[in-house]
Each structure stands twice: as C-alpha cells, then as structure tokens.
Design goal:
The protein contains 14 helices and seven strands. The chain is α+β, with helices and mostly antiparallel strands. It folds into four domains: 75 residues, no CATH class; 52 residues, no CATH class; 82 residues, DNA polymerase, domain 1; 115 residues, hpI Integrase, Chain A. It has a four-stranded antiparallel beta sheet with strand order 1-2-3-4, with helices on one face.
Length: 379
Amino acid sequence: MRWLPKAQQPPGRAEQGIEHSLSLLWDGGADRNRTCDLLIANETLYQLSYDPNQFTCRHLYETAEQTIFRFHDSLSRGIFQRMNKSHPRSGEFRRVAENLFRYSSSGVYYARFQNNGKDISRSLRTTDRALAKRRLADELENASKLDVKVGKMTLEELLRLYEERLGQYAPKTIATRQSILKSFKETWPYGLNIPVHSVSTGQLELWLASRRAHFKNATYNEYARFLRHLFELALKFRVIATSPAAGLKGLRVETPIRTTPTWEQFRALVADIRVQRFSVDARDSADLVEFMGLAGVGTAECANLMGEHIDFAANRITVYRLKTDTGYTIPIFPQLLPFLQTLQAKGQIQQGQKIFKIRDPKKSLTAACKRLKLPLCQR
C-alpha cells in the first residue's frame, strides 16, 4: 500500500459521515424537519458507536457548530471545580457554660466533657439553650453509669454472659430461655458482632414483629421478657446507660377454655392409661394422673414430691414449687388416703426418694382422651 500525505489521503468513514451530516445540516435534512441540535446529536452517537478513535471532540469543534459542546464543556468544568473545592468551616465552638459549647455558624449546642480520661463530644441536637442544659445533664448522668472498659462489648459477648447466668432458674425455665436464646442467634438480622450500645428499641421491635405471626400471646411475652432480662444484664455491667428493651410491653394472655372431666371420666382415664400393655411407663403415668386428680395439684408440685413430704400422722402433704421457690401444705383428703396407702404398700413412699418416676403424663393423658373420645381432648 502506498502511503499518502495526510492532506492527500481520501476521507475515512468518520470524515465522510461528518461531511454528509454537515451537508444535511445546511439544507435542513432530507425531510427538512430536523433541527440542527438533533442532527448533531444523532450523528455524534452514530459515529461514536463504531469509530471512537477517529471521532474526537476536537474534530467536532473544527467541523461543526460549537455552541452546544462549549455549553456542556463549561458546565462540566464548573461542576468538577466545585467538587474539588473543599467547603471551609465558617464557625467555631464557643464555650457558654461548663461542658456546654455552641457552634457559632449553626447555633447547635454540644456537650464536651471527660469520662474516665476519655474526651467525649456529642451534639445535643438543639439550638435552644434551656433544652441543651437539660440534655447535657442527661448526657453527664448516663456517662457516669458507663464503664469505659466494657463499653465496646458486643452482642455476642452479652449473650454468652446471659447463658452463663441461666443456672439460677428452674430447669423448665432454663430450657425455655435456652430455646429463645437459640432462636435469637439464628434470626437476629443485624449481626451478633455489633456493639451492645448500638442496638436500638426499633431493631428489637422489628425482630419481635417478625416472629409475632408464629406466637401466641404468652409466647410473645416470654420473648419480650428475654430481651428485657438480656439488656438488664448489660445495665448491671455498665455497658449501656439505658435499656432499649425497657419499653417492650407484654400482651394480654388469652384465657383458655378448659373442660373439666367428671368423676366417672376421670376414673375411666386412669383405668385406660393403666391397662396399656405396650407402654413401659403405663403404671407410673397412671399413678401420677390419679394422684394429681385426687390431690388437686399439678405436675410442678408432683415433680419434687419426696417420701418425707407425706406425713400420715399429721394428715398433711408438703408440696414445693421450684419455679416460685415456695412451699405449702395440703391435707390428705379422704379420697386420697386409700391411694397413698396403696403406694406405701408397694414401697413407693420412702425417705429421700421421689414418689413418682414420671414428670409429665401429658402424652399418656392425651392418648387416653383420644381413645375414650372425651370432649376435653377434641379442641
């Protein structure tokens, strides 16, 4: 190929396209209804779509109308200049009282003080001096409640401390709280590595709301109680000054309608449970159900009933409820005495031994209700 000087080279595709667009520009286009601006924009996009190296802004300046491009160029230059130019601070902090400062340009008040050797500066979010003084007092009081050494405790560390302290509760309460704790770790959407002081009341309410559809009111109250106890522990360790869970209110617990069986139905239930040959716990479950019905007590009282708690001489039974840490006595009712004498004859009432081997006869009782088709189990 023979190379020609630039002046003698035939026009390329870009130059031919531009010359064609200029010729259309002067006579108004093929249909004489397109404006100059629209024609330039369309031809520009067309050329840039296939030959960006030959079609440059400088070439446009030399061959086409320059007004539009100069306008956009000056506009973009002005934008970049304003972006690069930093905004100077026009105000300064002026001390108006002890630990109270006012920023001169905005008029907003700030609290500035030291807590355990650490400088703290916080906006009081007001331009009213009286309100600023009240908020300053609150800031100083809250700061005095905090321990800087544990101020960065994460939510994961707080949950670990909470789990370690569960041993003070009754076994059933421990199981309930551990279940809630596990659910919280699996479903908390904001991460467990966040600082405790950054957890807000709104986040706790949103988490409870996301679980609300699966809960009865009593279950919801247990979850709310868990959150209150969790952040009360943070208060005790002086991680936070105020608890974000303090305002979480419980719901009114539903009052269930329970059908009380008649005396004949009760005797039928006990007999049905006792004759189940394929259940190894049939007799123990029947004994517990019969004692509960004759004595009028629940499973919580029966779980800790020992041989020494039954006093035949004084005609009374001492029962103890572990959850509330309370004990009380009930008389040995006439209908209960023959049953207790039977247990004593079988050797089940011994000093230092539990009377019943089964803690909860719920499964046996439910199965018996279904077999006997009693209405109390059809709800």
